[in-house]
């Protein structure tokens, strides 16, 4: 098989997602001044260097993000959005940029248990927060039925907006484990799909809910 | 039923084809976020590029001083339009030619022009662009088509653009064009910003003489944007590694499915261009690459590092379905039969390097579904600075509703159900002279009426209990589709497994899944048994012709599978003869094969076994039927359909679509109460694909008719709503469920008589027609509340004047 | 976005001190500011973004006697689902739950919603392409341009500038502003308490009368017949994501004194005084409601592209008054 073949099962896809999460750097490889290239052993030293050597420039800031269960210390420019940091600092591209203005939902992630648009939040303001992305959700066995149902019902066509929908769906089910079709459509009404898959999502989520309830009932019976 | 002489064309029992809920091959990758689109690629040590965009609707860059920009730490280069490196890149073969890759003249706001900044981050690129000292010359522009018609308005584009051989360029003549004759009797090809094109068929004069009355109407189609979900982006880098061939190797990601085009532009053998990314995003009927996807190889070569270039959302608002204003006259007999068609259309030609296909090509047009052969079309084509229009097939359905509206108006005038008027006017399967009924038209009609509980009423006569007015509309379409293209398929049996190599791209119509199902069906295997190998070097692609191309291609896959099957059975016979197994130097006798002594004709494949037809207990597992590697290749066209006429008038899929609306006269709000679509796809291959394609096109058409509009400032010609807040795509709460009826007549020329679906459902006027049926007034799309209110007020004012 | 410094303010004192300096700007939910920064619409790009979400105690909802206090950092989603809000001022919950989209409502705030800058597409055009009156420029481009979503009740008078020729016809599209005006809410800031009628204004890069460095802390809604008998109707082209093109808020107190406030129709929430007068002291009948609808657009001055708004206002005022009367 050529290495361009994408994963065709949840197992294979979640292995790739796990590899991406494993590859996220937990601390900067080097701490260097972006202006003069000098290297430092700590962020504080770099900051001190800015104050003394580049007083008119904007120093980067240090934040710690807990992304998919992993604490990542980052030194970032203050104007970066969480979406940008996820892609360019942590290598996660599950949150997608479509509108870049909070009007399409493609970049949806979960921050401290609430759905949020990563294009519309500064990473600087996520210090210490718990962030879940679609890659992390893909690894959790509980959500396997949801992903299976998405794939079984073609709740996607070109696939670009799909992770945003899936994260919003997961956030909905955390709040409301058995939503009606109306509640599903309302919860997903901030997510734009150009390919017109809208009715598929309610179909997939409804089926996943039934499956999860059945699994739960079986588990209770077994115990 | 079709019997098109291929292998198993008449297959009745299906194990795999039509089976619901088989996950897409790449769906797990897409759902879990590991699928990589162009903008998702990042490479260590890469640089970023941003292209200067014109802030003016039409302007020339006279000079650029880049000294300040270059002094910014992190800005590594500024490449200007007159840099000799641009001679190293050829033209995008899909978009026509232009004098140079990067020009110093912009023909619309936001067009790439003048300079490219390369820097260590996107933000630094932007800072560099702002620091350029640019001397602009603002030039006259046209964003209002009326203005462009003025013969005194200066020409907005030079001669070089008219002679550039843009894709599909027509011959323009002034023949019979009254405006042209009046103003320019000397017959120039083009005057100012206007060109003309006339096409006449049949005997129009005779058609008028046969008519009992003349019906005149206007159909206005507005600009909608081909809104691509993903930012158009690429990253490219070079290596001397000679991975596959000798010479330098270019790796480019993001120009998905256009590796060949990139190779051509950079004068490289295709094998020296590597492109592993598969995911194209929803790029329906939008075949062009953007400059951001084409330029990175050049910049990377200059910089000696990987370079990434990514469009912003605003920059992605760059391609439209173009505005057109049709004034139509129909000659009609008392019974509703059309005898003559005269269409005078003024059409926006867009900025240079737009597709001519979207402007002039008129054969794929509702008129050609009529028995009436007397048709004259006069097109007045106006250059503009509104937008690009690449080779966009979304145009096709956009001219269809010229006739949907006509049939509806005849029905209104005569007080006859429009489905009857359509039935009377629709020609037979072979040609406009064919008076036989078109297969499945009646069935689609009847099924649709049932689905909708169709009760036709005249305009403005039905009020709902809540006080709103009720309207309904119907349209049919016989789809002209892509099955005329040539396709190629390869299948390989290797180590007991059947492989289907494909180059992708993954574009959103699950074509490879359909092919996998067909191959599995023919080979007696399951869907999961076929191993699809995605490899950019593979010849097979399911891209050509989109989802309806898949239909024609399905035939090729079926034939190929049968070739492979025959070869596997031949090999199985050979294998059965082998009596000795070798383990290195050791030879051991092999137990006799249960199928030994039978010929290939006496064998078949099913349930993962190669078995003897007369005695199924004699079998070998399919996976060990032979130790040979067996390859089958097949290419060409699908056969001529059971009912189709020539290219461009192919009548080989049928559907009827229906909608009911409620209109609030006081607020102008339109609510879609119900949608119905009845389609005859010939044979359903993959049901969710079919249903999703219906939803997509119905919702796309709803957005275009009720919400979407590309708005330019009349004073400056700049885009006002090029963002997803102000340019409104429907949300989950705006679209009702589409009730669907599916008929399988097996009358198509794809595998098993499939004929496909695709853009034949897209429409520009079905909802607008239903609105007319509700309120008795035409509202030009998009029928937003403001336009509904305005149209009602104008109608009331006119009525007042008449009184 | 361009580069800027970012500070997580720990207290109101720290935040206001920072915000009093030139080139600094406050961020809460970011729903408005980040779009403006990405669109690069400011004539002078901010050098410092002061995060006020890091200030404690600004995200509470409490009922203090008969005053409903909503902290400026309360998210729209929290306001929409809060039982106190639903009980005592349901229209606030309705409007908060209808603004933008469900996901964005989880992070954007009440304070941000009422202070948001106009959505005018000339004002918002990328790269400060139109340096319009609302940015301190010479003229309003919408007056002669495409004004389909603009004011039908004239230009906004700049609070700092008596030269009304520079008027701006961008409308206030906040979902909450008209309701708060109808309910007679008070806005507590770091400097003072401002009555709803005085809070909204037209300023250079501002939609309120807040001074430089002055921060909204809390919105106080008097819980009364008015706050309970209040209806909010938003009119948008889509059922989600859209800003309201128009909105109508109607309310009535025990003495049959009515409030009729129109959003999206003028540079600030428009109090339809004439409509209020028509129904004052009376029970609503269909005829009276119709008359009030017509009175609501009395004195309107539509521009070339937005006359349709009058028809919608007229209708919605009529319908909402009838619905209010039948409660």
List the helices and strands and how they pair.
The complex is a heterotrimer of chains A (223), B (803) and C (327).
Chain A: H1 10-22, E1 31-32, E2 39-40, H2 43-53, E3 61-67, E4 70-76, H3 82-88, E5 108-111, E6 114-117, E7 130-132, H4 134-137, H5 144-152, H6 162-175, H7 181-187, H8 198-222
Parallel strand pairs in A: 3-7
Antiparallel strand pairs in A: 1-2, 3-4, 5-6, 5-7
Chain B: H1 27-31, E1 47-53, E2 59-65, H2 67-70, E3 75-80, E4 105-106, E5 112-119, H3 122-131, E6 133-138, H4 145-149, H5 159-162, H6 178-183, E7 190-191, E8 194-201, H7 204-210, E9 213-221, E10 224-225, E11 233-239, E12 249-253, H8 259-265, E13 273-274, H9 291-294, H10 296-303, E14 307-310, H11 313-316, E15 320-321, E16 324-332, E17 338-350, E18 375-383, H12 395-414, H13 418-425, H14 441-452, E19 469-478, E20 487-494, E21 497-502, H15 511-522, E22 530-534, H16 546-577, E23 580-583, E24 586-589, E25 603-606, E26 609-612, E27 615-621, E28 630-636, E29 654-663, E30 670-680, H17 687-706, E31 738-742, H18 766-775, H19 785-802
Parallel strand pairs in B: 1-14, 12-13, 17-18, 21-22, 30-31
Antiparallel strand pairs in B: 1-5, 2-4, 2-6, 3-5, 7-8, 8-18, 9-16, 10-15, 11-12, 11-14, 16-17, 19-29, 20-21, 20-28, 23-24, 25-26, 26-27, 29-30
Helix pairs in contact in B: 12-13, 15-16
Chain C: E1 5-8, H1 12-19, E2 24-27, H2 33-39, E3 48-51, E4 61-64, E5 67-71, H3 76-81, H4 83-88, H5 90-96, H6 102-105, H7 110-115, H8 141-144, H9 177-182, E6 186-189, E7 193-195, H10 196-199, E8 200-203, E9 206-208, E10 216-222, H11 225-228, E11 230-235, E12 246-252, E13 258-263, E14 270-271, H12 273-279, H13 286-296, H14 308-325
Parallel strand pairs in C: 1-3, 2-3
Antiparallel strand pairs in C: 4-5, 5-10, 6-7, 6-10, 8-9, 11-12, 12-13, 13-14
Helix pairs in contact in C: 12-13, 13-14
